Amino acid sequence: MSDSTTHGTRTPVELAAAKWSDPHMQPAARHPEHVARVVAVCFFLGLACFAGFGAAYWQNWEPWTLGALLGGGMLLVGAGLIAWGKYLMPRGPFVEDRHPLASPPDELDAFTNAVMERGATPVRRRPILGGLLGAGLGVFGIVAIFPLLRSLGPLPGTTLDVTNWAAGRYLVDAYGRRVHQDQLGLGSVMTVFPEGFAFDDQAQSMDQTILIRVDVAPLMNMTGTPMGYVAYSKLCTHAGCPVGLYERALEYLVCPCHQSMFNVPDHALPVFGPAPRPLPQLPLAIDRHGELFATAGYDQPVGPGFWERS
Amino acid sequence: MAAPTAKSSRPSRPYGRFGQVVEELDERLGLARGGRVFLDKIFPDHWSFMLGEIALYSFVVLLATGVFLTLYYIPSSGPTVCHTPYTPLNGQITSEAFCSTVNLSFTVRAGLLMRQMHHWSCDIFVGAIVLHMARVFFTGAFRKPRELNWTIGLTMLILAILNGFIGYSLPDDLISGTGIRIAYSIILSIPVVGTYLAFFLFGGNFPGNAIIPRFFTIHVLILPAVIAGLLGAHLFLLVRQKHTQFPGHGKTERNVVGSPMYPVFIAKTTGFLFMISGVTAVLAALFQINPIWQFGQYHASNISYAVQPDWYMGWLDGALRIMPSWEFVGFGHTIPFEVLVPAVIFPGLIFTICYLWPSIERRYTKDNLLHNLLDRPRDRPKRTAAGAAMLGLLGMLFIASATDVIANFLHISLNTILILMRILVVVTPFVCYLVTWKICKELQAVPLGGRRKVANLVTLTPQGEYVATPMPPPPGTEPELAPEPVPALIETDGDGERGDGQRADEDEDAADPIGRSSVRTVPR
């Protein structure tokens, strides 16, 4: 195999039997003094690099100089050590016997006897005690789950089914400003939140809604879409990423995580990728000041699927 | 009792002060005999045995740099006004976790270096484990008696992947936060208990304030401790069962040939530790990794383009991308197969196959012998082909995790790439299997395949004829390259060939009480 160059055809010997005069104990290098010189240079340069690292740290040089000096020093010292071990130390090969792992039969029997006779017999003789102990430990195991698991968080309840959107809630941007009907140009999008919840990170994760003003294709039998404004939950129905990319020419919403595509003019139906459901739509209206508000909340849970979702 | 007299009864030791110290220690701890065995331990010299060392030493680098990072990182998602020399973020409201990660990169001396070393060595760590595992698989090193160590190693791989994911989520930046969001959705997808598990892990609905501190505890305490414990068990078993070795000159099932622990191996392996740390440091110095200040703070409603996880999560991300949108809705419940299958069932299946492989192979070959000599992969075409198929599948899924980037780069429609990847993921394993199997068979059929060509002496006879006479092979090539017969081929079905170990056993003196156990066949 690969060690043919260093080991040659020498037959492996026992390490303990090898004398210093044995060819196995000779260094592998043909000219050990040359190698020793190279190793010395490696170690010296490594030392210099480490000293340089100290200086660089002291003087607060750029991070890359720190790393290059530290890494360079380690590489040099490592290379020197490996060369020392490979070329200047006994070249071998040496052999070591592999003693069988399995115990002799009598020891094996003694062990199994000790377990089964000395240990297990008194247990088997007292089935009631054993059963009670087992039941007690079982109860302990179940009870221990409660503080370990149950205390970690609240029960889901209906948390995943509701958002803060409701009839009459105004749409606001990330700065809490209401959205005016002239704010978005045709083919533009923005992320909106229910008024009063724009700065709440926790609420944002469920409430985030993408507002689009479509311009290319007409909306297909959709209500709650004044002036071409249409709003969908921004939470992907696949794995919950924000559906943040809008392909204007096709009027597709694209999820950057796993590339699900939703057809905006047609109820955000998934047209491609792993998403199974359309994005829920938020029905909109415009008040007499020209500001957008929701005429209802979402009619279904937003985001990815889960067991309790019906 | 006897201790005071013991010293006087021993003859004076050579090597002066060192001898004295050793004697004092030995009187108290009894170190000399075990220590001698340790110093004499033989390590095989083959290069492929270094892959596990890479993993081990990357773990050392991870621990060292990780301890440094814990001194500056603040595990809290609480908001703070971030004061940082990085101007675009200065004065912004970010989480403590994000701000402290940015600041430990920019204000702590060598902080950026340590952070990047930590991240790079994690990628190297998992990569080395995978390569090490592939080496063990393709050479059959997992066979009896080493099945338990295969199991331990595989467990460490899973924990390493998990801890890597949790670790790169800690900075609370936009990319990793999206990863946590996907993880939350994956947990949600588990039928019946999914929502409960997700709420318990995150302390409520996503994102909550609990996940960063909890991830921190898991990342710096629980998982490293478990990995370190398993690592100890892994190395203990390695020493107890001794190394495997490739067949070759003087190598049998009953010995180990190579270099001794002291001084040869200790020098080489310490050098290797330095080399790996050095490579990690140079990578960290010259190649930026995970520049979180460019991604920004995570907000649940923000997203970035080209959201790719670290490489070892790529196959799962790819599986999520190519999965068709099959969701089951009925009986008042939803089972999101489009997430459940690629992210829960599929990896579960892959790791289960890996866990069970030693038993699967044993059942199939009915081979219950102890194996210390390794296989050449070509001698086990079916196993090698199965491994290649697995690598092909995972490799294709890995590529599938970059569909958006590939589509952008090649100016091809995303849909085309996705459909292509779906086909490739299904087809590649079969192609890999067949091609690998065929290559193995062909290599077996070439008797001198892999050997050096023999030189010919060409002479001109007086009749004007050229005669080529093969020369004897150069010294050092012949015995090394001729593989010894290997026991119980997968392809042979019990034709009585018992292999090297059995024959060696028969030669053994029958009176040897422990000789019988080196090869023990259990009747089925």
Structural class of chain B: mainly alpha
Number of strands of chain B: 8
How many DSSP H or I helices of chain B?
19
Give start-end ranges of low-pLDDT stretches of chain A.
1-7
The CATH topology of the largest domain in chain A turns out to be Rieske Iron-sulfur Protein
On the 0 to 100 scale, the average pLDDT of chain A is 88
Measure the end-to-end span of chain A: 63 Å
State the CATH topology of the largest domain in chain B: Cytochrome Bc1 Complex, Chain C
For the largest beta-sheet of chain B, the strand count, sense and barrel status come to: 2 strands, antiparallel
By CATH's scheme, which homologous superfamily of the largest domain in chain B applies? Answer: Cytochrome Bc1 Complex, Chain C
The percentage helix of chain A is 25-40%
Total count of strands of chain A: 13
Q: How many separate structural domains of chain B?
A: 3
Q: Report the structural category of chain A.
A: alpha+beta
Spans of chain B of at least 5 consecutive residues whose pLDDT stays below 50 are: 1-7, 478-524
Largest interface: A-B, 101 and 124 residues
Percentage of residues assigned to helices of chain B: 55-70%
